[in-house]
Write a structure and sequence with these properties.
Radius of gyration: 23 Å
Largest sheet: none
Strand content: under 5%
Distance between the termini: 13 Å
Structural class: mainly alpha
Number of strands: 0
Shape: elongated
Length: 207
């Protein structure tokens, strides 16, 4: 049972890492619901201009009506005073982000504070801003290589002693399963990356 549990644990770790690398939003790493994410950034621009157009690209056509109405109410309230403006802006961010995530099939659990974006996602955004993916690609490659090498080395060392005893053999199987599932998790996401907000479903591997 220990081997099975640790094998699954290793697989989940690999899958989570791969998703963190590749998804703009995969399951827990979405940043469109943060106050410094791209959706809210465009919302601030729209409010400053008094023009809802900048945020419409984040919505499906069928969802525009709700957001347009929220935008109109926000513009009316934010004219009252600075404090009202701050509250009104936050009021607008909420339905905008909620509707956007719903359109992508992702859950909405409220607006997240600024600064909570995962480092790898922040690097992905910076790459676009700089019009260069070199730094991001190198960081991902290095992190991935480190993870593969670590698990490979552990499996290799265990393999040398797998015939020493039943316990040694089980330790090898545990290391082997963790290593292979880690690689599988990465490969599955690389070759079949899920859509925004969807979880990856790695192919089954029996041991």
């Amino acid at each position: 049972m220990k081997t099975t549990y640790n094998g699954i644990k290793g697989f989940l770790t690999a899958a989570s890492f791969a998703l963190a690398i590749l998804l703009t939003p995969q399951a827990a790493l979405a940043h469109c619901d943060t106050l410094d994410g791209p959706v809210v950034a465009d919302a601030r621009i729209a409010l400053a201009k008094g023009d809802v157009t900048p945020v419409l690209k984040w919505l499906q056509a069928k969802d525009e009506k709700e957001v347009r109405e929220a935008f109109a109410r926000t513009l009316a309230v934010r004219k009252l005073d600075p404090e009202a403006q701050k509250l009104a802006d936050t009021y607008f961010f909420e339905p905008l982000v909620r509707v956007h995530r719903a359109g992508e099939g992702a859950p909405y659990t409220g607006l997240k504070a600024a600064g909570t974006v995962e480092p790898v996602v922040a690097k992905a955004d910076r790459a676009l801003e700089k019009s260069s993916v070199d730094e991001l690609a190198k960081a991902i490659a290095a992190h991935t290589e480190e993870g593969v090498r670590k698990r490979f080395q552990h499996a290799l060392e265990a393999r040398k002693h797998m015939q020493d005893s039943v316990q040694a053999g089980r330790e090898y199987v545990e290391a082997y399963v963790t290593y292979v599932h880690y690689v599988e998790g990465i490969a599955q996401v690389v070759h079949g990356a899920p859509h925004h907000g969807e979880a990856a479903t790695p192919a089954a591997h029996q041991h």
